[in-house]
Write a structure and sequence with these properties.
Elements (H helix, E strand, L loop, with lengths): L1 H9 L11 H9 L31 E5 L6 E2 L5 E5 L2 H5 L8 H8 L4 E5 L7 E4 L4 H4 L7 H19 L10 H24 L5 E4 H14 L1 E7 L13 H12 L4 E5 L6 H5 L5 H17 L8 E6 L4 H14 L5 E4 L2 E4 L11 H4 L1 H16 L5 E10 L13 H13 L4 E5 L18 H12 E6 L1 E4 L15 E8 L11 E7 L5 E5 L8 E8 L10 E3 L2 E2 L14 E3 L5 E3 L3 E7 L11
Parallel strand pairs: 1-18, 3-4, 3-13, 4-7, 5-6, 7-8, 8-9, 9-10, 10-12, 11-12, 12-13
Antiparallel strand pairs: 1-15, 2-14, 14-16, 16-17, 17-24, 18-23, 19-20, 19-22, 19-24, 20-21
Helix pairs in contact: 1-2, 4-8, 11-12, 12-14
């Protein structure tokens, strides 16, 4: 028995001297859940017999099974959602949201929410002006700027003539001038960000029209965050400008959900005075009353308070808010950024300790929410690999995908209903699409997730993964495995199929044998790897060995799987992310929506 116990703890393969039948005795002890999987009540645990495959020398396969009887969580159809930062008004990119290429890229990630919010939310003022060129006195004296400004106006006129979804074809020279403008403005925006002092922004009626047109054409539901820092002398919220925006949006019959403010825990550093949780709760009740006065928005959804990292003072703010307005909001929201981009290194994205920092935050938020409004939905908004705008060749590289995919898996498995990625397109390096309108690695990862992953989360059962911990140390697995029902929107797979997604942070390949209900099924592999000589720093990716790129401005490439024969062992290359659709499982949990 001591010999058996030693092997169970170590997870090492049984040596040739083991007595016959020892593996069969060891099997029940090896049926362990992975450290990142769900609690014991998440589903039935099955004993997986650990067998040495023929020809294997001293290596135990990782055996994997999934509970197919019932889901342990059901998340929103819009689980993976997007964010646009108001800085796109400053740097001019908002005028290009009607680009066919951008709409095609955004449409690929639908259905989703599009949250319009960020650091500059609380410096945003609405101005009901239809023609921005006239309001600022016409184009400047510079010839190229004049042409650029005139082109924007001509583009707006052309868009106004279109009915329904308004799509523009911007000339290359126009886009080149915009990139030059954005590059100059990028320095200004970074200076504001690092000094934590922001200038006021004006959102015109035409700009709001362009924003809504982009969301509507892309199949995204717009969530607009209103300025919460317009304050009366008694520190209550001044809603006059917000009311003007609400009335205009209602006159256009825009279907919008709402928020108020962004990271209220930082208001003292922004304006020199704080807004406590109780006052913020009263402000949300005031906003709810405004919405109920406007027929179009009487039943509109309201989300908040969008706090930052849940430290002690932030938790106190959330508690004060929940006491007053917990029942007023439709979901409770917070933000998370893993590391400071100013000190980030590529090796940071491979650290399991960093990947696990989110779990503690989830528990803290859930504890407060369940204390005041049990069962209330929780969203993670404004999530990104790095803070302070990200870092080039890091937060927009293949390496950042390890954090992003693990974030999706971890949040879904712990019941977080929606995660909003910052950002779809902006001046920083945390975005999914660059300023040449080319999709970056995290875009392709998100597209695969949308195409293959459904809202039903399944419990996994793993054997052979655990190691013997050293005294005082926590095991943090470098092989992360998550399972969902395959997306119902993917007509290549019948209902009842299951999709696994796997992150291998090891510098060696890993072998996984599907067992139980997954045994001897045909599997489709979607292996995502960096493309080109830059390795983990690469901004391009390949799927099953084929580089991914748009076919043209209106067409995304076909995501072709690599079929694996029934019963074949899954071989996971080092430092990769992959999806595996197990076909025709006929999983009871996945047959019906």
């Amino acid at each position: 028995s001591e010999l058996i116990r030693g092997f169970l703890l170590s997870g090492m393969p049984c040596p040739s001297s083991c007595p016959p039948g020892l593996l069969a005795l060891m099997a029940p002890g090896l049926a362990l859940m992975a450290t990142f999987s769900l609690p014991s009540h998440a589903g039935d645990r099955k004993t997986l017999p650990v067998e040495k495959p023929p020809g294997a020398k001293g290596r135990t396969l990782i055996l994997l099974d999934v509970n197919t009887k019932s889901p342990v969580r059901i998340i929103s159809e819009n689980f993976l959602s997007l964010q646009l930062d108001p800085s796109i008004i400053h740097d001019g990119w908002l005028d290009f949201l009607s680009s066919r290429r951008l709409v095609t890229l955004a449409r690929g990630l639908a259905p989703a929410f599009l949250r319009f919010a960020g650091k500059r939310t609380d410096f945003l003022q609405f101005h009901n002006v239809k023609n921005p060129a006239k309001s600022r006195g016409g184009p400047g004296p510079d010839y190229y700027l004049k042409n650029y400004e005139d082109d924007i106006v001509r583009s707006d006129i052309a868009l106004d003539k279109q009915k329904g979804c308004k799509i523009a074809q911007h000339p290359d020279i126009m886009l080149e001038l915009q990139r030059e403008k954005a590059a100059q403005m990028h320095l200004v925006l970074l200076k504001e960000q690092f000094s934590n002092t922001y200038s006021n922004l004006t959102l015109t009626a035409r700009s709001l029209d362009k924003l809504y047109n982009f969301a509507d054409c892309s199949g995204l539901h717009l969530i607009f965050a209103l300025n919460a820092l317009r304050r009366n002398p008694n520190n209550s919220w001044n809603s006059s400008n917000a009311l003007s925006l609400l009335k205009y949006s209602a006159s256009k019959k825009y279907n919008i959900s709402w928020e108020l403010g962004n990271e209220p825990n930082n208001y003292r550093t922004l304006i020199g005075r704080s807004v406590n949780g109780s006052q913020l709760g009263k402000d949300y009740i005031q906003l709810r009353s405004l919405l109920q006065l406007i027929r179009t928005y009487s039943r509109a959804n309201l989300y908040g308070p969008n706090i930052g990292r849940p430290r002690k003072n932030v938790i106190a703010l959330l508690e004060g808010f929940m006491k007053v307005a917990g029942s007023t909001v439709d979901a409770v929201t917070w933000q998370h950024y893993y590391i400071d981009s100013r000190v980030a290194k590529v090796t940071d994205f491979l650290k399991t300790r960093l990947l696990d920092t989110l779990s503690d935050q989830i528990r803290k938020i859930q504890k407060v929410v369940n204390t005041y409004t049990p069962g209330k939905k929780i969203w993670l908004e404004g999530v990104g690999a790095t803070s302070a705008g990200g870092m080039n060749n890091l937060s927009n590289s293949y390496a950042a995908g390890f954090l992003w995919l693990n974030t999706l898996g971890l949040l879904a498995s712990q019941g977080i209903d929606v995660v909003v990625r910052h950002s779809f397109l902006d001046h920083s390096h945390n975005h999914l699409v660059d300023q040449n309108f080319n999709p970056l690695p995290d875009y392709w990862l998100s597209l695969l997730y949308k195409r293959l992953i459904g809202p039903k989360v399944l419990a996994i059962h793993v054997a052979g993964l655990q190691r013997k911990p050293r005294p005082g140390r926590v095991i943090r697995d470098k092989l992360r495995i998550y399972a969902h029902c395959t997306s119902y929107h993917n007509h290549n797979y019948v209902r009842g199929s299951i999709t696994l997604y796997i992150i291998n942070l090891h510098r060696s390949r890993k072998k996984i044998k599907l067992a139980g209900t997954l045994r001897d099924k045909i599997v489709h592999q979607y292996l995502l790897q960096p493309y080109g000589k830059d390795g983990l720093h690469s901004k391009s990716v390949q799927l099953n060995g084929q580089p991914l790129a748009m076919v043209d401005d209106g067409t995304l490439p076909e995501l072709k799987p690599r079929p694996l024969r029934a019963g074949r062992t899954l071989v996971i290359p080092p430092l990769t992310m992959s999806f595996y659709v197990v076909k025709n499982v006929n999983a009871l949990a996945c047959r019906y929506r």
